[in-house]
Amino acid sequence: MQDKQLWLQPDYFEGFKCKCGACRNCCCTGWDIAVGMEEYFRLIGMECPEEIHRRLECAFRVPDVPSPERFRLISPNWLGECPMHDADGLCMIQRDLGEAALPEICRMYPRCLKKEGSLHEALCSNSCEAVVELLMRPEHLRFSFVEMDVKTEIEARADGEMLNLGKRTVELLQEDAGSLNARIGKICGAIAGDAGYVSKKASISEGLRVLTGALTVLSEDSEALRRFAAETIARYGAENPDATENYSADARRFEERFPGWMRWYENILANHLVYMNLPWVDDRLKPEQARSGLCMTYAAMRAMGAAYTFERGSRDDLADALAGLFRLVEHSPFYYNAFVLVKEPSCLLAL
After folding, report:
1. Cα(222)–Cα(225) distance, integer angstroms
2. Cα(31)–Cα(331) distance, rounded to whole angstroms?
3. 135 near 173, Cβ under 8 Å?
4. Which of 21, 146, 270, 290 could make an S-S bridge to 279, C-beta 3.0–4.6 Å?
5. What's the rounded Cα separation, in Å, for the pair 321 and 36?
């Protein structure tokens, strides 16, 4: 048992439950899920029914550059799913042997237990559709301190100034006054020391050009993004002469269909800011350089939400597209790649 600590939690954390077989887009699908050396040998050697043992023996492949922490990758079956899934969508290990038998990554996801300086934080990733669904609500996302005796998973560098600025980004986002893109602009100004950051000359056409160009590049290495951003690229890309008109009409339809969208997006972004430790998202980037990734995240949420629900239109469809986007944003070098691809991100806030 760990020493009890006060953990900063979003209000949904303790009530979060995995949807298991009811998940529309399983977290195992399309990802390289790694296990460490010790866990791999524990899984292969544990006592279990013969069917589970046979599947485990064929469930892993060697990564190109193995390490003790990334010793084996789970090898998907012909459907692109984890080979330990049964026909009902449930994990055979968890169902027959209990949660404690799972690899740590499967036990924890989408939860993240991290320490920033003296601050302990317990959150969940937006890459899980169940988390996104919990955040699609009319109430503000709230954070509070709760005493827990769990083990820290990640330690991030932080000091008082960093923590104060990170807290300020959430406060700016949750201001009730102003549009959501204006609040994103204020955050960009705060982390760059430039209160007048957002360009007044930004246009929808320029924002779409920059966004779809970056999404096209990033989709090459992300199955989830490739799937959920296809309509966005097709409807709003530079090759479509009706891109601006399409987006303007789709955005209006989206806002009519989902009148609570702005609070939903605010909650999802607030969860993201804390989860990613913004603006210290990548050791290769200065805090002000995180603007590109933040603006692109917001713009992709707007454009992908409008395009993906254009013909579908359900709340579940929107949750699926957003979770698919955050698979890339929160589990890859997205912020660094966005900085490389988008040098002047203020145009993205026109969307």
Report:
1. 5
2. 10
3. no
4. 290
5. 30
